[in-house]
Specification:
The protein has 94 residues and is an alpha+beta fold. The chain is built from three helices and three strands, in the order H-E-E-E-H-H.
Length: 94
């Protein structure tokens, strides 16, 4: 299920800066919600490899930037078989 343009833009604005700090080669592709509107999916791509990041919709909306960053890094570490030492804890809006 697609989100409206404004909501897609807001999700992208929160996720893209985190992706670029984690790895500048990660590209934001799209965002969608499941039919129950409980789960938010964000598709990103690393080179030719698509990756799906999953979030609880309410958790995504209500989480702080630091919490969201940790969740994104954890999912990416698992999917890319990396271990991120979180020196990336600098503020996103620096």
């Amino acid at each position: 299920m697609q989100l409206g343009t404004e909501r897609r833009t807001r999700v992208r604005q929160r996720v893209e800066p985190v992706l670029s700090v984690y790895d500048p080669d990660l590209q934001f592709i799209t965002v969608f919600v499941d039919s129950t509107r409980d789960t938010l999916g964000v598709v990103v791509q690393m080179e030719d490899r698509p990756l799906l990041l999953k979030f609880g919709w309410v958790d995504f909306i209500s989480s702080s930037d630091d919490s969201l960053r940790e969740t994104i890094y954890s999912q990416l570490d698992q999917k890319l078989h990396r271990t991120t030492q979180l020196p990336h804890k600098q503020p996103l809006s620096a």
